[in-house]
Design brief:
There is one protein chain. The protein is mostly helical. It contains 10 helices and no strands. The protein has 2 domains: 137 residues, Ferritin, core subunit, four-helix bundle (Ferritin), CATH 1.20.1260; 145 residues, Ferritin, core subunit, four-helix bundle (Ferritin, Up-down Bundle), CATH 1.20.1260. The chain is 64% helix and 0% strand. It starts with a helix and ends with a helix. 37% of the residues are buried.
Length: 336
């Protein structure tokens, strides 16, 4: 039964997920291969090597899916997109924070893909991806604790009893007395601050080394946006007498101006990071009942949405955006 099922064509969800995974894994391989050229901490080195091994294993299995389906293998990213001889651009500390953030996102992605796929071999693949990522995530996070990089989220007091909401003030935010932040609101604010701290550092480095002037301007703009968003989330937490649960990481960027990656790779990485940020903001918007927070998330989504669209236009103009799987254009076929 299983052998027969293997020959069932891949669904749109399955081929799209595999295509996106191939793009991410080939990019990850380029990134970590460069990181490993400039690493001093032996423990962080081990985590990077583990992450690289997993990405290479996934890429091999993804390639097999495409080959067995006679589906064109995506271009993705290759050794042409990385310069292993370039000087160090980021610190060991940022490498580890990158792995923690990468596994955070992959846990979400693989968990969301599994309910959408039906073929047994694809289910098995993404189940394995999820298990492997859980192990790597724990390894990276535990090391971040040891290195003093992982900053714990704020604590909140234990209630004396179960209670129910009685006043409309629970939803208020702009006028009158604001209620304290909910635990879920604190969690979202801290996570958003951490993502923007890391994102600002990465894009700061990219803005120093990009070859194309338009790309450098795009990265410089993103650096400023990430810094502003970090301040927004940190200030909300501080206004509620809570720590931000993170710190700026731009000091973890060296002064190198020699590009370790192609402009195409860096642009695709940043636009992918923005897309995941929009998704995270959207989730935070739906789970934050206080009106002032909803308005902030809506405003910030609009800002990075425009920035993302500008980035997509640059990718298209430069011929750097690979076309993902898509449906047939029936109208065009009818005209032919």
């Amino acid at each position: 039964m299983e052998n027969k099922e293997h020959y069932i064509p891949l669904t749109s969800a399955e081929i799209t997920s595999l295509w996106a995974s191939y793009q991410e894994d080939t990019l990850t391989i380029c990134g970590i291969s460069f990181f490993l050229q400039h690493i001093e901490d032996e423990q962080i080195l081990n985590v990077l090597e583990h992450a690289l091994t997993l990405a290479e294993k996934r890429k091999e299995k993804e390639s097999r899916f495409f080959n067995e389906e006679n589906y064109p293998l995506p271009h993705g990213f290759t050794n042409q997109d990385v310069n292993l001889d370039a000087p160090r651009l980021f610190s060991d500390k940022l490498y580890l924070e990158y792995i923690v953030n990468m596994t955070n996102l992959n846990l979400i992605v693989y968990g969301s893909v599994l309910p959408l796929v039906d073929r047994s071999d694809v289910i098995a693949f993404y189940s394995e991806c999820l298990t492997d990522t859980q192990i790597l995530h724990k390894e990276a996070k535990e090391l971040a604790k040891i290195k003093g990089i992982n900053i714990r989220a704020p604590q909140i007091p234990k209630p004396n009893k179960v209670d129910f909401i009685k006043k409309e003030r629970f939803l208020a935010g702009w006028f009158g007395e604001r209620r304290p932040l909910l635990g879920t609101e604190i969690t979202n604010l801290v996570y958003a601050a951490r993502r923007n701290a890391l994102g600002q550092a990465v894009i700061t480095g990219f803005s120093q080394v990009a070859h194309d002037k338009e790309v450098r301007r795009f990265f410089a703009r993103g650096r400023d946006i990430a810094g502003k968003h970090y301040d927004v989330f940190s200030d909300i937490l501080k206004d509620n007498y809570l720590p931000s649960g993170t710190q700026l990481m731009t000091s973890e960027v060296t002064d190198s101006t020699i590009a370790p990656f192609s402009d195409r790779l860096m642009m695709n990485f940043i636009t992918t990071l923005i897309a995941s940020g929009i998704g995270q903001y959207g989730y935070s918007l739906t789970s934050s009942p206080r009106h002032d927070l909803s308005v902030q998330y809506t405003r910030l989504i609009a800002e990075i949405g425009k920035y993302s669209n500008d980035g997509a236009n640059i990718l298209i103009e430069k011929g750097w955006m690979e076309q993902p799987p898509m449906a047939a254009d029936r109208k065009d076929l009818t005209k032919r």
